Amino acid sequence: MLCEERLVNIMGGTVIETASEKLIDLGRSQGISLGISQGISLGMLQGQAKMIIELNQEAGIDDAVILKQMREKLSLSEKEAAAFLKQYGK
User: Fold this and answer.
1) Contact in structure between 84 and 76 (CB atoms under 8 Å)
2) Mean pLDDT computed over 60-80
3) E strand spans, the chain
4) Is 86 exposed, middle or buried (0-12, 13-18, 19+ CB in 10 A)?
5) Rounded distance, CA 2 to CA 10, Å?
6) What are the phi and psi torsion angles at 16 (to 5°)?
């Protein structure tokens, strides 16, 4: 792109962006946006799960109750809730 800009400055023309270049740029920006939003959502979910686990374990709540809370409050499957409990539990 830098080379094209210098060429335009020297020759006084304009750079024509092809349809495929526009689609590639659009796809790239959409992919980046989606990746960022999914990363934020996953991070928030992990934080919420960790908080539920830590607070309930500190209060002496049984793991079965903690799993049920995570499934209900975070809309997790039993397998997902169990994975978070294994990761963040004591």
Assistant:
1) yes
2) 91
3) none
4) exposed
5) 12
6) -95, 125
Helix axes 78-88, 63-74, angle to 10 degrees: 120
12: left (phi over 0), alpha (psi -120 to 50) or beta: left
What gap in Å lies between CA 58 and CA 61, rounded to an integer? 8
Name, in order, each residue with C-beta under 8 angstroms of 77's C-beta and a sequence gap of 6 or more.
71
pLDDT at residue 38 in the model: 64
CA–CA gap between residue 67 and residue 47 (Å, rounded): 15
CA distance 67 to 23: 44
Count of positions (residues) in the chain: 90
What is the per-residue pLDDT across 4-62, written as a single tens digit (0 to 9) for each? 555 555 555 565 667 777 777 777 777 777 666 666 677 888 888 999 999 889 899 99
What's the whole-model pTM score?
0.59
